[in-house]
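Interim report, section 4.2 (structural modelling).
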Amino acid sequence: MSEEILKALMQLFAIIARQDVGLSLREREFVESFLKQQLSESSVNEYLKLFDSYILQEGKTREENDSGEVKLTSVKDSVKILGIAKKINRTLAQKQKVVVLIRLLELINSDQNFTPQRMAIINTVSEVFNISKQEYKAISGFVIREESEELDIPEILISHSYPNQNINSHFILSHQLSGSIIILRVQSVDLYFLKYTGNSELMLNGLPVKSGRIYNFANGSVLKQPIGKPIFYSDIVAKFISDTVETNIFFSVENVSHIFPNGCMGLEKINISEISGKMVAIMGNSGSGKTTLLNVLSGSENPSHGKVNINTINVHSDKEKIKGVIGYIPQDDLLIEELTVYENLFYSTMLVFRDHSTLQITEKVDKMLTSLGLYQIRNLKVGNPMNKKISGGQRKRLNIGLELIREPSVLFVDEPTSGLSSRDSENVMELLRELTVRGKLIFVVIHQPSSEIFKMFDKVVILDDGGVQIYYGNPVEAAIYFKKIDNQINSDVGECPKCGNVTPEAIFNIIESQIVDEYGKTTGLRKVQPKEWARYFENFYKPEKELQKKTDLPATYMKQGWWRQLNIYFRRDISSKLANRQYILLNLLEAPVLAFLLAYIIRYIDDPASGVYIFRENANIMPYLFMCTIVALFTGLIVSAEEIFKDRKILKRESFLNLSRSSYLISKINILFLISAIQAILFIWVGNSVLGIKGMYFEYWLVFFSLAALANVIGLNISSAFNSAVTIYIIIPFLIIPQMVLTGAMFSFDRINFNLGGGREKVPVIAEIMPSRWAFEALAVNQFMNNDYEKHFYDMRKLESAFNFKNVYYIPELKGYVESYKSRVIAGDDDPLKKADILLLHNEILKENSSFYADHHQIIFEDVSSISPENFNLNTADAILFYLEKLESFYSENFNRVNSIIDRQISEMVSTPEKRKEYQQWYDENYNSPLAAFVKNTYAPLPLVRLGNKLVQKIDPVYLDPSDRRLLSFRSHFLAPNKNIAGRLVPTFYLNITILWFFTLIAYLALYFDILKKLLLFFERNSGNSKSSLNENEKNPIGKKLFYKDLEDERILSNTNFN
Amino acid sequence: MKKQKTILVILLLILGQFMSGCQQGQRQEASDLLSDSFSEGDLRLNNAMIAEVISSVPNPVEITSILQKSGVVYSQDLLNPAGNISNYNTNFQRALNIGVYGTDLIYMNIYDRTVATLRYLSNIRELAGDLRVEQFFDYATLNRLSESSKNVDSVLFITNTGFDKMSRYLIDQGRSNIAVLISAGTWIESLYIAAHAQTTEANRETINKRIGEQKKVLDNLLLLMNFYGADSGLDELIEDLMTVKKEFDNVTITYQYAEPSIRESDGMLVVVDNSRSKVDISDETVRNIANAIAVVRNKIIE
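Predicted structure of the assembly:
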C-alpha cells in the first residue's frame, strides 16, 4: 500500500472516528492494529501520529464550528470524504477498495457506534467505490452482525457445532467448535473474508484468529480448528459454488477382488461409493495393492470379481462409454522430454479438443500454465529427471496439467507427491483439492502423506497386505478408529490437541504393530492380521444407501478426428525428434558412415599388379548385398525398438482419451518410415557410389527401404510388447541372427538341415518367413538381371542356359536310367525294373511333354502311360531313347543357334579396338562376375539332383523360371528370376518387394491388435494357471491317496477283525 | 498351354528386339532361335575327320616334357598372363585362349609351379563356363589336386582328358568350330613356348626337330579352318597362320620306312617301330618360326 493511500486512509479513519461521538479508545486500538498489520513498528507510530493529528484537525474545525450546525460539518466532511474516496478510486484496484470498505466498517464496529452520520459516510464511500448495494449490504451485515441467524443471505457461509437453521446461507458443520465461523464471499471481486465469534483457538494459515476480527480468506488458505477437520479454501469455494455445480458422478465399487496371474490375491472385496467433488486417498503399506486398486478403478485392469460403476455404467465392460470421463495421472512422468513445457501441454491439448482453433488452444494452454504457475518456464525443455531442466514439482504440476486441461470427471492420481519437497507436495495437492470444487471426483494413491495433506482428503481407503480393505472413511476419524481398536488412551482424539496433526504413520504403526517377545524384540509376527482388520472393518462400515441415479455422464471433450490426430501426433513426434539434435545427427550419420565404412573396406583391386578398381572383379558385391539387408534390418529395428516403449506411459494416459490407436501408430510409422527412407537414400547413395555399382539406385533404395520399413514395424511390435529396454535389446539379436543365417547368402539353402527343408527344390519354409531372404534375393536377382550389361543379354542367355541344361545334364541323365535298364536286361537281371527310376522317367517325360518348349518342337512322347512299372519293357525303353535323342538334338541345335547369336552380337561389339575398349568398359562397370557365379550357382557340386522321383536343376537358378504353375504354388527355388502367382510369372524383384510390404502389413496388424503383447500375456497367464492348476493337481492326488489309504487301513482292520 | 504360348511369343518378341538392335543389321526372325525341326547337318564336315585332325595336334604334355627333359629353364614370361581373361568376350577368343591357358597350365605343372596354376585352372573353368562346356572340368577336384605338387600327374591327366572330352563333345554338338579353335590355341601356345625355349645347343636339336614336325599339323589345322572361313575372326587367324606356314616351308621332312622289330625289354617282348622321319630345320628357320608364331600368339591373347 502506498504512502499516499495510507495517508488517505488515515484521513478517512479520522473523519469517521470524529463523527458524532468522537474517537473511542477501541477505535484507536483498531487503527493501531490495522497499521501493525501493514507496517513495521516505527512506521506504525509515524502513521499513528498522523492519524492523531488528523483527529486533532478534525477536532479543531469541529470546535470552531461548534456553535454552528452539526449538519454543516458533516457536509464539509462529506466533501472531504468524496475527495479522498475519488483519490483512492484512481489508485486502488476494486479488490483493495473492498478491503478498504471492510476496514472502515470494522473501525466503526470496534466500539459499535453505528451513528447515522458514520453510516452515511461509509455509504457514500461504497457508492464512490462502485460497490453494488446488495454487496454493500452483505458486507456491512457481515462486519456488524454477530448472530448467524441474522446473516441468512447467500453471500454468507456459517460453520458451527449445531445444526443449521438458516435457509439462504451456506453451512459447514464443525463438531467441537465454540461460536461460529462466518465467511463472506464478495462475488464481484472473488474475495472471501472470515470472521470468528467463538473462543476456540482457530488458526488461519498458522496464525491465530482473534474473535471478532475480520480476515481475508485468501486462495489456498486453511483454517484449522483445534479439534476436527480443517476448513480449506476449496471447501468454502465448493460450498458457495455448489449451487452451480450439480453432483453428476456416482462412483461405486462393489466387492471388487483381483487375482494376479500368478494366483496371488491382489485385491479382496473392496467397496467404495463416492459422488463428485470428493478427494479420496488410497493408502496402505507398500505391496498392499494401492496401485492395483487404482488400475482396477480406472478401468485399465479388469477385476476378477465385482464391478466398478460410474452412473451405473460398468467401467470395465462398457469401456467405450466411459472413455474420456476418466483421467489418469500415473506416478511417472508423461512428458516428452525433448519438448518444452508449452509444447507438451499444447499437443496434448490439441489432441483432445476438436472444434478449437489453434488460437483458442493456445489461450487455453497459456491459462492452464498460468494457473499451474508454469507460465514463466513455458519455453524450457522438460528434460528428464537425470538431466533436469525444470524442477520435480514443476514436472508434476505439468503432468497434472496435461490431464486437467481436458477436465475429466473422475481423476485417478498415482503418488503425486513422491519425490517432491513438502512445499511442492502441498502445492500439488492443493491443485488437486481445488479440482474437487469443480465437481471432480479424485482418487489419489498416496504414501506417507504429511498431516497437512492427509487432512485435505475427504475420505481415505486403507488397504492392508493382500489387498484387504481395512478402512474407508474420514481421515481424521481413521486415527480414532484404529486407536480405539488398539485400546489406546485418549482414543477419541483424532489429532494432536496441541498441533492439530494427524500422522498417518501413527495409523500404520497400529496396523502393523508386531508381537514383542519376552526380550522386547519384535518377532516379525503381526499383532493383528490383515484378515482381522478386515473383520473389524466389516463391523464398522455401513455401506451408504445406493445413491445411484441413472444420470447421464457429464459431457466430455470432443476428441479430434482421425486425420487431425494423426497430424498432431506426427507434428508432436517430429518436433520432439527435431529437438533432440544428437538423435537427428546420429540417425543421419549412421547410414552413410556405415555405408562408407563397409563399402570402402570391401572395395579392392582383384589383380595385385593392377592399380585400377574394376567393379566386375569385386568378389564382395554379393556380401555387400547381404550386408545391405542386415544394415536395413538393424537400422530399422534400432530406430523403432524403443519408440512405443518410450511412449508407453503417455500411451496409457492417452488410452483414457479414447484416441485412435491407429492414428498414433500410423503417425509413428510415418515418422519412422521417413527416417528409414532417408537412411536408405544415404546408405545406398554412399555405398553404391563407393563400390561403383552403376545405376539401379532406386531399386536398391526400394529394397533397403522396404526391409527397413518392415523392421520398423517389427521394432514397434517388440517395443509395444516388452516392458523394459533391456529386454528389447536382448530380443533384437533373436530377430536378426536367424535372418542373417537364412538369407541364403551365408549358408546355401542346399546345405542347411534337411529337416528344415534344406537341399530341396524350393527355398526352405523357414527361410520363406525371413524378410532378409526376400530382400537379399531381390537385390541379388535385380543386380544380376538388370544391370546395364546383363539386361542386354539376359533373355538370350536364359534360353541358352535352358537349352544347355537339357542338353548337357538333363537328357543324358534320363538316358542313363533307360540305358541302365537295358543293360540289366541284357545282363539277365531277374528284376531289371527299378520302380523308382520308372516313376521318375514317367514324371519327367510328362513334364517335358507339357514344357515351355514342347509346343514349339512338337516332340511329344505320346504313350506316357506305358512308362509305368507294369507296362515298361524293352520297347518302351527304346521308344524313350529315340524320343530323348530327338529332344537332345533339338536342344543342342537351338543351343548352338542362340549361342552363336549372342556370340555374333558380342563379336560385333568388339569388332574394332575402339569398340572393344568401349565394350570392355561397359562390361567391367556393370557386370559382376563373382555375383554372377553366385546367382548362377556355378560352383554347385551337382548341376542337377534327384529328389525322390524327380530331377531338380541346381545350376543357373537365375535363368530358371519355376515350372510349377499351379494356382497356389507361389514358392519357388532360390534366386528365380520370376515367380509364379496364380499361374502367372511375376518378376522376382517386384514380387519380393510386394512380399516385404505384405509382411509389413501383417506386422502392422499385429501391432494394431497388440498380438505379441497379448500372446506374451497369454503365456504368462498360462504358466501362472498351470502353476495353480498344478497345485490343485498336487493337492488332489494327495487327498485321494489319503482317502484311499484310509479305506485300505479300514479294510485291513476289518479283515483282521474278520479273521 | 495358351499362356505358355503367349509367354513364348513375348519372350521371342523381346529377343527379336535385341536382334533388331544388333548393329550387324541382320534382322533375326524370332523363330530363328528355335528351329522348328532338327535339321540334319547340311554342309557339315565329317565329324570323324575333324576329330582326327584335332587328335593330330600334339598334346602339350609331350612338348613341355621334352622341354623340361632337355633342361630348358622355366620362363614365366612365356605364359599368357592370367589377368588377360577379362579380355575374352567372344567364343572365338575364349576357345583360342582356353587352349592357350590349357597349354600354360600343363607347362607350369610339368615344371611344378603349382601356386600359380590355381589361377590358370580357374581361368580355364571360367572360359569353359562361358563356352558352356563347364561340365568337363570338375573344378573342385582340380582345385584340390593342384594344392599339392604330388598330384601333378593327376592334374595333368584330368586336364588332358577334360580337353579331349570337351573336343569330342563340341564336335558331337555341332560346335566343331569351337573345338578346332581350342586345338589351334593349344597348338599355337605349345609352338610358341617350344620355339622360345632357351637351352643349350645340344638340346636344341631335339626341340628343333619337334618344332619342324609341326609343319604337318599346321597344314591340317589350316585345312580344317578353311572350312569355317566365313566365321568372324577366323579369316584373320588363317591369314596370320599363313605367315607361320610360310616359315615352315623351309622345313623338309623325309619319311623312311623300316620293318618293325621285336626285342626283349625287362623280360617283356615289345614291338619297335623302326620307321624314321627326318626333319631338316635350320636354327634360322626356328627363329623365324618363333617370331612368326609370336605375332599370331600375341594377337590372340590380347
